[in-house]
Amino acid sequence: MATSVAPTTIVHEVLRKDNYANWKVCIQNYLLSQDLWDIVEDTNEPPKPEDNEEGYRSWRKKNAAALHAIQISCSLDIVSQIREINSAKLAWDALANLIQAQAMGGNPPSGVHPGAENSSFQQFVPLHKAINKGDWNSVKAFLEGHPNAKNARISANGMTGLHVATIAGHVKIAEELMRIMTVQDLEIQDVFGVTVLCVAAYNGMTKIAQSMVKKNHNLVGIANGDGYIPVVAACARGHKDMTHYLYSVTPLELLFLENGAHGIDLLNYTIICKMFDIALDLVQRCPRLATATRRPSHSAVVTLSHMSSVFFSSSRLSFWQKWIYFCMQVQLPTTSSVHVYIRQNSLRVTEKEASIRSRVVSLLRGLVSNFFEFFGIKQVYDMKLNHVLAHELVRCICREMSSLDGREIIDRGVYAAIFESVRNGITELVVEIVRAHPDLIWSRAKNSRDIFQSAVEFRQEKIFSLIYGLDARKVPLITSVDSLHNNILHMAGLLAPSSQLARISGAALQMQRELLWFKEVETIVSPMSKEMTNQDGETPYQVFTRNHKDLLIEGEKWMKDTATSSTVVGALIITIMFAAAFTVPGGNNQDTGFPIFLHNKFFRVFIISDAIALFASSTSVLMFLGILTSRYAEEDFFISLPRKLIIGLSTLFLSIAAMVVAFCASLFIMFDNQLQIVVPITLLACVPVTLFILLQFPLLVEIFISTYGSGIFDRKMKRWY
């Protein structure tokens, strides 16, 4: 009696669209245990009955067993797509392609199955292998013997030879196949509805795409199984050159709203992939796309609100980068410059380009490019170009948004975009939206918090500073409360998001920044707001104390650790410098008791630097002792403790520098006119000291700026609303 194999004995659950990785491991292990994996893995053709009847019977039995195991381990809807396949290997490959295509967004057309032509495509296995290997001679020989193969489906998922050549990136084979194929042949779609141009778009094969479009321009308008035309497919994969080329050859009317969602998809993907030149050109030529959406709350403005990196207000630049940034002039691209095919030097290498002159020019360009990259100039330029393009795109979108009514504003996700922009600190987007719809200044999130309460909650100082640019209308915003009866000062009492705290070095400076926020908000609220209680009966100060309890403890620990380690260094310098004052270089005169090199100019340098090092290190140690004995109240972290730390670190650095000078002066005294000895030793002595200063000096600068700097808020904000 035959036994049946339940799928649960092979795999834990049948194959679906979302569990292929686990299913693959289980079925592979099962086939290995049954000595059937060779049938699936074998790349050779199966034996023929006329050549080896016994071998063929053995192969047929194993193939049937492996194929049966694969089929009963799949869900019914997947089995229906491979039921025509009678080879375990082809079924295995078809499943891999099927799941991969579904993951990429492709959906096979109804009624078409990856094995429907199994009886015919098996004869094309040699052709398939030759194309994958890039062996044009073998491909040519096969086509001469099988003329119909030029446009035949040669794989389980319905791909033609041109599909395979394009995926493999074999340009020569693809061009030769296109030469012998008809215009209509290029429009053949595989089982997932993918044309050869879509395949080229997926893989960024721009040169192949050019040849395809040149032969059949209709390809640019044929969508894949998921409804994406080639330019959208290329953009979704992030292929910039390919997207630029396809955008330049795609008819504009194809992107109009009247012709489907192609324009909406392209606009959103160009924003996500930071191709703002195309996005800006598209919005300028098709203004209605600016506010269009496939589904509620998924418009272009919502997409932009999640991309803080493409706006200047959310960028964190060093001093050097800021200097380069503001010195650069960036021009918006014209329409003609957007419609560029691709970089021509990426397509082919001509004889002229191979000439000596061309090589020299390329070398010079490479040197200039490397120079700009080394100093970060190119990166800053690209960043500023993105910022300018993104800001201009926001302006265009908001101009179209100004005509929306209340219902449309909700459907387009404008409210969501505002508060997501506040969360990410995108000032440009908030300002432009409010300018387009002034009433949106009163917008409230789901928790009834307005724009400025949310800005305080998420610690976005540039958004909060906009309140200084408002007229009397800022009063209702300052005094408003949320659904829990928290006012704006209560928001300052909440702990900052971890992403904001992570930008600040050390828990003590984080506590200082939190106090700075609380005191800044405190200056603009009324006395009554300071004592107002929320739903839990807590005042803003009580909320601050409760939420910052742990940070206070961490700040105390950080301060003590820093002070302790610095005290050790300072005490060591005191010991050395005190001893050096009585054991001067060269010793003392036995008769007079005065130093032998008393009148040497370097001796004076030695004594002065020794005294400076001694006094500075003593001051440093006293300051750090003051930190160690502090009471560590919340207020101490605002000015008192940072001031002591600044003095302590400054005098410590001064004492270290003076100690090195004293050491160098003693070398010059002892080895007079022997620079070959003095200079190397001096340089070596400077290495550990320099490393210490480089590691600690940025901390000193950060503390000084946060304590005595101009602040993070712009109280002189001009009226913007």
UniProtKB/TrEMBL annotation:
**Could you give one GO CC term from the UniProt record?**
membrane
Q: Give the stretches traversing the membrane.
A: 563-582, 602-625, 645-671, 677-709
InterPro entries in alphabetical order = Ankyrin_rpt (IPR002110), Ankyrin_rpt-contain_sf (IPR036770), PGG_dom (IPR026961)
Annotated PGG domain ranges read: 556-669
Q: Does the keyword Cell inner membrane apply?
A: no
Transmembrane: present as a keyword of the record?
yes
Keywords in UniProt for this one? Membrane, Transmembrane, Transmembrane helix
User: What PANTHER family does its record include?
Assistant: ANKYRIN REPEAT PROTEIN, CASKIN
Protein's name according to its UniProt entry: PGG domain-containing protein
Whose protein is this, by species? Tripterygium wilfordii
